[in-house]
Amino acid sequence: MNATYLTLILFFILMALGVPVSVSLILGLVIAVIIFGVYPLMSIVTLFYNSLDSYLLVAIPLFMLAGIAMSYGGVARRIFNFSEALLSYLPGSLGSVNIMASMLFGGMSGSSAADVAGLGSVEIKEMVKRKYPLSYSTAITVTSSTIAVIIPPSILLIIYASIANEPVGAMLAAGLVPGLFVTGLLIVVNTIFAVKNKWALTSRFSPKNVARTGMYGLPALLAPAIIMGGIFMGTFTPTEASAIAFVYSILLGIFFYRELNLKKMYKVMYEGGRTTGIVALELASGLLFSNLMTIEGIPEILTENILHLTQNPIIIMLLMNVILLVAGMFLNPGFSIIVFTPLLLPIAQSIGISPMHFGVIMIMNLALGLITPPVGACLYIGSAVSGIRVEKMVKDLLPFYFILLVALLVIILFPQMSQGFAESIFSSG
Fold first, then answer.
1. Residue 290: its pLDDT value, please?
2. pLDDT over 70 at 260, yes or no
3. Helix 333-350 and helix 313-330: axis angle, to 10°?
């Protein structure tokens, strides 16, 4: 036994006793390091600090704050109104509106949790008002929230890029086409469900209404264009983009929509600070464990063992996806990225998968975990917003699990969807 294995044993024991995930890992790691003397205890403190002392990681709390500010500042309602005007002619249009609104909001916040919390109450309330079942309304809201961590400026893609040493701008670009693909696929599936269940509530397409809601929502709709356009054109870095997004969301809420006041700003900063503290502790604990695994050569050992077991790329890919799906069901996705990237990326590269393509595959797997029991964060936020029990919602989620797995398979089989687009944008760099 070495320090890594002891850390894992203590980690699962402490988690079973109800200790928070990040605290369980840090305690297990400290005990293992003391017993095996891997490095001085003072090194843990230094590594803990250095793991968070990153210019790139500043983007994470700023994008979180931007998403929360947009939720309180009236942006969510404007995005929903514009999406409804654009898609009102489709059968079951409000479900499709829900999906498109999540894509647009995700293009500003980069967070699925922020999407459910910010847009969820608006979307579910409106769907139920128009006679859609509450369980389905919540299920489609929760499912569509996964788009936010696939499409740029996905916080998970930023974390992955920092761990895999990939260019952040290119990594974010790699998520754009898969994110649009998942959006389109969910809209098609929702339309089929609507026709089958006779939820075909439509209204005439009105260019005038599109123009009206578009003009009023234009400042909100410009946010993803500014963020992604600036990053892709090299005008500013992802970290600078996150700062611009935060300032822009505040100015929008205060001066344009006039729904963001001092009281709400306090809530924005409080929620942002609380969420950042949780995420920072998870990031630091995961990076400490990742460092320990690297020192003890665990990634190399795992790669050799798997390749010794089988060299069939299909079986290896299947095995990696199963590991990531199970990890997503039980662990925070950011934490999972930090722990499993150094373990699985070398294996993926050994069978010819590029780091960029593997990053999108990993995020797709972990996005499923966000809406899967027993730990799925978006699942429980959706339940809290709608008031429906999780077990009742899961029944309506089952078809969407299958659809997202189909999307994952397509993304695996066609790497040009992610890597091809990113390379076309950043080929000169």
1. 80
2. yes
3. 170
Alpha helices for 130-237 (secondary structure H): 134-144, 155-164, 168-174, 176-196, 207-232
- Pair 175, 154: CB distance under 8 Å: yes
Backbone phi and psi for residue 102, each to the nearest 5 degrees, phi listed first: -65, -40
Longest CA pairwise span in the chain (Å): 71
Task: Report residue 406 as tokens.
Answer: 């189909």
Asked whether the beta carbons of 145 and 123 are under 8 A apart, the reply is: no
Is the pTM higher than 0.70? The answer reads: yes
Name the amino acid, one letter, at 131: K
Question: What whole-number distance in Å separates Cα of residue 112 and Cα of residue 102?
Answer: 9
Task: Return the structure tokens found at 221.
Answer: 């709709």
- Cα gap 375→215, rounded to integer Å: 40
In this predicted structure, the answer to whether residue 56 has a pLDDT above a threshold of 90 is: no
Exposure b/e, 190-214, CB count within 10 A at least 16 = b: bbebbeeeebebeeeeeeebbeebb
Specify whether the CB–CB gap between 279 and 285 falls below 8 A.
Answer: no
Average pLDDT over residues 73-82: 81
Helix (H) or strand (E) holding 376: none
- If you search the block for the tokens 């490095």, which residue do you land on? 39
Cβ atoms of residues 182 and 158 within 8 Å: no
Dist. CA 361–CA 338, nearest whole Å: 15
Mutual angle of helices 3-16 and 21-36, in 10-degree steps: 140
DSSP structure class, residue 330: H
